[in-house]
Amino acid sequence: MAQRLTSTDLKEALSACGVPDGAPLAVAVSGGPDSLCLVLLASEIANVVCLTVDHGLRPESAAESATLEKLMADKGIPCHRLVWQGKKPEANIQAEARIARYHLMNDWCVANGVGYLLTAHHQDDQAETLLLRLARGSGVYGLAAMPPTSNMPGTDGRITLVRPLLGVPKKQLMATLEAMKVGWLEDPSNKAMQFDRVKVRLFLENPPLEGLRADRLAATAGRLRRTRDALEYYENRWLTENVEYRHDGTLMFDPAAFDSVPEEIMLRAIASMCRTVSGERYVPRMEKLERAADAMRAPVFSGLTLYGVQFIPVSGTQVLATRELRAAQGRVPVAEGGSWDNRFDISAKGDIAGLEIGPLGQEGWNRALKAWPDIRQTTLPLAARIVLPAVFDGEDPLAVPHLEVALGRGNAVSLSLKSHGWPKK
């Protein structure tokens, strides 16, 4: 029988992850053995709150959440149920549910001033993810193990995601709960064969080769994480030295600098540029990055669009990376603490009733020229101008913050650019 995990083991793991003693912790709990073990052990050594998400995907989900809430109440652990509202997807259900889950928990942590969110990812998860991504043809970046800590997207480092159980096998977590005499909930989707992860899980229970054990695969993923970290170090150094990160969300660089680094570094740098300018969490597939790199290094480059980003040749050999207009978010109401296009945070004060923020657009540019003729002097190409965020009252632009022009209530709105992990000098 597997040896049980103790709260002392968890305390040491949290310390290794850089979590200070006494820090309030939120724990993502589904009711399964992994997360249930984590929250119970954490409650012995820290001030914790349980966050559980009701996805509304199964009729019994509300009752399961209620069962978990009762268990947490019996253990004296505060529990908050977060509900995924709105229409549910018909495809990629597990992936979309995961994104929604993290958004809900992230928002709760920000609103309640909790800086650390713990998840119960464990050794078996590492092995399963490695095999899934191997089947999809992933390279080093995709095959690398999950890191013990990472910044939650969109929080500028305010919320740290912590995975203290990555070295712990699932059977040890189950043995711990059994020793505590605590039962757990079983999610039927964990046995549904239409999901690839379930197929991989069954494969690992009886692998055709001795070396395909979860512990060995997790160790391999850990070694690939070290390789990825080394590649990211050189990628970030190249980006810092060769790419101008501009306050309006555009990037400027010379593709000739691609020749100064190995191809893998160059391709990852293009991927990071796409992620930063688009505001997306993920990056284009490798074959698309390879085609983009070939096009930008060609003797004549006329421009291209990739992942909602336009790469536009400008003065000399320089290339400007800007958001693609049709991929950008439309207009949204101006609100203090809001965001636009997942790229700009909004600050607003005073009379903002009825104001919206969205891409300037061609018509907006034409109207802005009448209000502020001097903006004609901007050096930005047209494609970059018309995707700049602007403040609107009806069809009239009241402000274009990155062109430093504003009228009346437009002065009440300011924007700050999200970094999306862009390397700092």
UniProtKB/TrEMBL annotation:
It catalyses: cytidine(34) in tRNA(Ile2) + L-lysine + ATP = lysidine(34) in tRNA(Ile2) + AMP + diphosphate + H(+). The keyword Nuclease does not apply. GO terms for molecular function: ATP binding; tRNA(Ile)-lysidine synthase activity. GO terms for cellular component: cytoplasm. SUPFAM superfamilies: Adenine nucleotide alpha hydrolases-like. Its EC number is 6.3.4.19. CDD domains: TilS_N. It is found in: Cytoplasm. Residues 26-201 form the tRNA(Ile)-lysidine/2-thiocytidine synthase N-terminal domain. It comes from the Bacteria. Coiled coil: none annotated. ATP binds at S30, G31, G32, P33, D34, S35. Keywords: ATP-binding, Cytoplasm, Ligase, Nucleotide-binding, tRNA processing. InterPro entries: Rossmann-like_a/b/a_fold, TilS/TtcA_N, tRNA_Ile_lys_synt, tRNA_Ile_lys_synt_N. GO terms for biological process: tRNA modification. The N-terminal region contains the highly conserved SGGXDS motif, predicted to be a P-loop motif involved in ATP binding. HAMAP family: tRNA_Ile_lys_synt. Belongs to the tRNA(Ile)-lysidine synthase family. Ligates lysine onto the cytidine present at position 34 of the AUA codon-specific tRNA(Ile) that contains the anticodon CAU, in an ATP-dependent manner. Cytidine is converted to lysidine, thus changing the amino acid specificity of the tRNA from methionine to isoleucine. This is tRNA(Ile)-lysidine synthase. It comes from Kordiimonas lacus.
